Amino acid sequence: MKYNLFMGLIGLAVLLTACNDFTNQIIETIPGSGTVISETREAHDFSRIQVNLGAQLELTQSGEEGITIEADDNLLSYITTEVVNGQLIVSTPHNTRISPSSVIQLHVGFDTLDALEINGSSDVVADDLDLDALTVTFSGSGSTHFTGTVSQQTIIIKGQATINNLDLNSEDVAIDISGNGTIAVQVDETLDIKVAGMGNISYVGDPAVTKQVSGMANINPL
After folding, report:
1. Cβ-Cβ contacts under 8 Å for 158 (sequence gap 6 or more)
2. Distance CA 152, CA 130 (A)
3. Dist CA 212 CA 92 (whole Å)
4. Residue extents of the structural domains in the chain
5. CB burial class (10 A; 0-12, 13-18, 19+) of residue 84?
6. Fold classified for 2-221
7. How confident is the model at residue 194 (pLDDT cuts 50, 70, 90)?
8. What CA–CA distance (Å, rounded) separates 110 from 37?
9. What DSSP assignment string belongs to 71-99?
């Protein structure tokens, strides 16, 4: 009798724990109000950016660091921005999904930039870049259109992305695709290509090309 009661209490405890874990995993969806406003936030001492939500991202190498967000007024409090170990992270709480009435706009001003990581679905534009090296990683989906100069350019696609960087001057470009990517670049010296997924790669210039393809790839000079 005591044994059965003991086992019953253990079973109840396990059930309550499982229910609590399930409750913690419930994702709340917050619809946008339809009233879009702009909010500027401070962000300092970062050289890397990570975006974990769907947005249109505009990067400006102005030397003035900060971020301006255009979104529904009731969603701004769910969009978090913080700098952690030199990385500006834009995200939402893990158990919350926001449903904006229009595409969220992110305007980020920076002094220098080493890495950009897209984990949501984001289109990224940047004009007049002047950087020694930049690594762009898409684990989600989206696109880029960059202009200016980045001497060493690295593009990593784990999700799906379209990269239109024909107006971005580079000496060396490294491409690593394990997802699905369409890439167009301008490169002068070396072009290193690794494709384990699917890739369509076009380039302008006369670089030395090395390639390692275990997936499907079309590689063509323009």
Report:
1. 137, 138, 139, 178, 179
2. 11
3. 37
4. 2-221
5. exposed
6. Pectate Lyase C-like (2.160.20)
7. very high
8. 22
9. EETTTGGG-EEEEETTEEEEE--TTEEEE
Q: Look up residue 125 and give its amino acid.
A: V
Token pair for 19: 């229910």
Residue found under tokens 């003991």: 6
pLDDT tens column, 117-159: 999 899 999 999 999 999 999 998 999 999 999 999 999 999 9
Q: Of all helices (H) and strands (E), which one includes residue 192?
A: strand 180-195
Contacts of 13 (CB under 8 A, 6+ apart): none
pTM of the model: 0.86
Instruction: Give 40-69 pLDDT, tens digit per residue.
Output: 999 999 999 999 999 999 999 998 999 999
Q: Hey, how many other C-beta atoms are within 10 angstroms of the C-beta on 170?
A: 27
Phi, psi of 204 (to 5 degrees): -110, 135
Residues 6+ apart with CB under 8 A from 99: 29, 30, 31, 32
Sign of CA dihedral 195, 199, 200, 202: negative
